[in-house]
Q: What sequence folds into this?
């Protein structure tokens, strides 16, 4: 099988990695020749499908499916109309994506199927979260301790022409689950834990059987499936939640291929969400059974003589990465590390039978980097509020 991936940044690297692991040939299209996924795919194509639709169509016609790996609405709309009526499936559901881009609209849908959400303002009181309805990547998300903070948050949201979502500030473990639907029925996959860095960006994903209790796990899967079926999801989405002492509270859904969590799931359980998505769209889902293993997926950056854990935005600056096995004791890595380089970035993936075993492998790999590269310091940032 051959897959066209449109967009070669973080989502594109994820799709390329997953496709490779499923034995699918990859063509990555990106308008920038520095896009990192171009160096890990089988066939890089520097092209903007909106500017050169006939060349893009020629590439797409040579593939069994096309997946957008970007969040630019005009490109997504362009791909949707370009591929409709062809027999090459687009692994993307524009209508669900549009819905998931509005937190206000998706909260309404979630409420209608009984999804537990953070309490709305003003009922929730302080501290409250003030965030824009239609942004992503934590843009404009603020914690308000008083009315002045609320006003400041609202003013920013107004200045970017968005609508606010105001709700209870919930604490706990951040968790995520992916759901794939065929337009009628949907299936929830594997829960992962998302660990944040100083800038509230995801620096690590943990996949193991102990992330949620059996009861919470059942609830999370139910939530994902019910929401997807209510939306008529015909592709993949993820659901992000926080496990509070009172149970799960869902923050948002996003109907597009995410980065990070699918690779952690593949390493931990053997389930390849891209393979599931593509085979579901082609009408013959593989439905691979999840193995009860564990994994840790993490980003590191070496810069200015210091090794740091980093969020994925920082990792996204990686240049001409390669996929390799065994780097610093990892199972697999995506990185532009070379011995002696003064700046490099790496995603290291570790897997094993238990969470403890994997944590030990992570610890040893950091030790090995510090030792082999003669680095004195490892800085592992955590969010300021926690
Ligand atoms: N109600 C909330 N309580 C606590 N933290 C929140 C809440 N809403 C958002 N956050 C924090 O802000 C981040 C971004 O918010 P989210 O709703 O996921 O929007 P997006 O990822 O689209 O920017 C979350 O990952 C979480 O860390
Ligand atoms: Mg989010």
A:
């Amino acid at each position: 099988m051959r897959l066209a991936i449109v967009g070669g940044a973080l989502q594109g690297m994820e799709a390329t990695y997953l496709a490779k692991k499923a034995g699918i040939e990859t063509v990555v299209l990106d308008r920038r020749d520095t896009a990192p996924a171009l160096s890990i795919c089988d066939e890089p194509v520097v092209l903007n499908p909106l500017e050169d639709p006939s060349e893009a169509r020629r590439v797409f016609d040579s593939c069994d499916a096309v997946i957008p790996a970007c969040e630019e609405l005009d490109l997504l709309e362009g791909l949707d109309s370009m591929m409709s009526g062809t027999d090459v499936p687009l692994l993307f559901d524009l209508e669900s994506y549009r819905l998931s881009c509005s937190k206000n609209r998706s909260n309404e849908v979630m409420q209608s199927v009984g999804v537990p959400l953070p309490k709305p303002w003003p009922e929730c009181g302080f501290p409250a979260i003030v965030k824009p309805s239609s942004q992503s990547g934590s843009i404009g998300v603020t914690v308000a301790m008083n009315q002045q903070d609320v006003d400041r948050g609202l003013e920013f949201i107004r200045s970017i022409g968005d609508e606010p979502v105001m709700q209870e500030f919930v604490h706990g473990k951040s968790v995520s689950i992916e759901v794939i639907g065929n337009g009628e029925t949907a299936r929830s996959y594997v829960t992962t834990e998302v660990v944040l860095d100083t800038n509230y960006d995801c620096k690590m994903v943990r996949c193991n059987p102990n992330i949620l209790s059996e009861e919470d796990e059942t609830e999370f899967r139910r939530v994902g499936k019910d929401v997807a079926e209510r939306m008529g999801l015909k592709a993949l989405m993820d659901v992000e939640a926080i496990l509070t002492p009172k149970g799960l509270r869902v923050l948002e859904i996003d109907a597009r291929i995410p980065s990070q969590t699918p690779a952690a799931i593949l390493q931990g359980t053997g389930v390849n969400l891209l393979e599931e998505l593509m085979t579901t769209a082609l009408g013959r889902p593989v439905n691979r059974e999840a193995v009860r293993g564990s994994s840790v997926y993490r980003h590191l950056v070496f810069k200015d003589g210091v090794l740091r854990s980093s969020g994925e935005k920082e990792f996204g600056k990686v240049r001409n990465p390669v996929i390799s096995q065994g780097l610093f004791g990892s199972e697999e890595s995506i990185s532009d590390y070379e011995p002696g380089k003064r700046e490099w970035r790496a995603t290291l993936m570790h897997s094993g039978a238990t969470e403890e075993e994997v944590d030990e492998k992570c610890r040893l790999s950091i030790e090995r980097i510090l030792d082999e590269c003669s680095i004195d310091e490892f800085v592992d940032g955590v969010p300021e509020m926690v």
User: Anything to note?
Assistant: The chain has four domains: 2-92, 119-168, 171-281, 295-379. Residues 214-231 form the longest helix (18 residues).
